[in-house]
Amino acid sequence: MTSGQENGLRTWMGDRQPRLLAVTGGKGGVGKSNFSLNFAIALGQLGRRCLLIDCDSGLGNIDVLLGLFAQYHLGHVLTGEATLDQAIVPGPGDLEILPAASGVQALGKATAAEAGRLLKALAAVSQRYAVIIFDTSAGLGPQVRSLLKAAPETIVVTTPEPTALADAYATLQVVVNAADSAHEAQAVIDSVFTVSNRFLGQAPGYLGFIPKDPAVPLAVKSQSPFLVASPGCAASRAIRGLAATWAGVEPASPERADLWSIFRSLWGNATVALRPAASREKVSS
Question: What is the 3-state secondary structure (H, E, C) of 30-95?
Fold first, then answer.
């Protein structure tokens, strides 16, 4: 791909790009998707409208957490069976959600043609949102690594359990979930910093922690975000604070903050074959 072709596609995508955030976890069961959902709602309450994309093809459960029935999902958009607007479902407030695909329709298994279709669809609606959040699969498989490498901003959700700390050093900002106290959360982040400094020579950022709160599992059982079901609980107060902190910090590398970076990392140069005619004309002129 030539630099002119890349510039042409970026021009077509528009100058006003939303902040792009990947949320991941070192292992399953750390509350990653629950964090993504409530974090997106909290950002919306701050006036930052979000699109939450569930990228976990194996255990995608954003719609389950909300008790939603989605007629279409990410896989249908990839194959052209549904438009993006048909697949997007409304969440609490002004949050919008793109439910996960499943099986062979997983994001990481998309063909170049399918990737191009999704890229164009997202680019067409991207100016509606202040933030697009990618809720990744747990762990650091190939698809997750590609997404984290491309995303300009990353939050990793971990817990005080030792097995949840194994991959946390490889990301940019850490949130400790379900901590018994600020002291326990600090002990967890100290462990992450130790491993990160040892293997990478640098430490990730620490966004903060969410305390263990009985309102969280109760909200999950009632299929309602805890920020909506119990807005005054400790977990809700904490995630509002985390969202306000994150929203007030400008991206460290704004030049990387575009959808094309993510798609190129996931599918390589093949997606340029589906660039719009307007971009081809600009490139050839």
Answer: CCHHHHHHHHHHHHHHCCCCEEEEECCCCCCCHHHHHCCCCCCCHHHHHHCCCCHHHHCEECCCCC
| Domain made up of 18-270: CATH architecture | 3-Layer(aba) Sandwich (3.40)
Exposure pattern of 132-163 as b/e (b: 16+ CB <10 Å)?
bbbbbbbebeebbebbbebbbbbbbbbbbeee
Residue in this structure with the two tokens 């680019």, named with its chain if needed: 123
* Residue linked to tokens 């919008």: 96
SS3 174: strand
Who contacts 258 (Cβ-Cβ below 8 Å, separation ≥6)? 10, 13, 17, 20
pLDDT in tens, 213-237: 999 999 999 999 999 999 999 999 9
Six token digits for residue 166: 């194994």
Where do the DSSP E strands lie in 100-152?
A: 131-135
Q: Is the pLDDT of residue 130 over 70?
A: yes
> Nearest CA to 204 among 243, 174, 182, 177?
174
Reading the block at residue 4, the tokens are 């002119």
Report whether 17 contacts 152 (CB < 8 A).
Answer: no
Domain boundaries, the chain: 18-270
